[in-house]
Amino acid sequence: MTHRRFNRKHTVWLTGVFLAIVFAAAACLESAPAAAPDPTAEVPTTQSPAPTATNAPGVADTPAPTAPSVAAVAETPEPNTATPEPTANPLPLAPDADPVTLDGTPKLKDTGNWINTEPFTLAEQRELGNVVLIDFWTYTCVNCTHTLPFLREWHSKYSDRGLTILGVHTSEFEFEKITDNVQDAVTEFDIRYPIVQDNDFGTWNEFENRFWPAK
Q1: 35-44, 47-56, 101-110, 187-196: which has the highest mean pLDDT?
Q2: What is the DSSP letter of 199?
Q3: Among candidate residues 198, 144, 195, the one with its CA nearest the CA of residue 176
Q4: What domains can be seen in the chain, in order of their start residue?
């Protein structure tokens, strides 16, 4: 009698366990996520129909431009490329100017000894087409000696191009009137352009000069 009760209870217990396993498996299957799509699988593509040109409502079809005919091109006149001939000058011509005269030009006056050149006149230099730069100076004048480097450079650059520099040595002191002293100063300052002594202030007064140096 005891052995049968044990078998019945044991069967009920096994049945409950089995049912629990079945329900648990069913629940797992329902909650399982759907399988992800295979990235390597080919995706069928559909070809979109080609768009067709449509006109907006109310817009008429515009005909395509056509090339001009050969006859129309042939009838087109050629542009005028001829250079117009110059016309006469409408402005009145100026009357002929009077020739320039040098009668009122100051001259070298009461000159003394010449250094670095033979004596000449300003008129002779003008006839040669030269421009004459006159420098009133004296060798003891400090401001005069400060200008000598520029005069030496101009003589070196332009003496063969029509520039004649003439140093008019107008003495301020008696010892400056001595030709040998002037010659020594010319050698010391390396002056190579013409020098003329003006001890009596003749050229100085002719040019109405008032100070040293003056050019």
Answers
A1: 187-196
A2: T
A3: 198
A4: 114-206 (3.40.30.10)
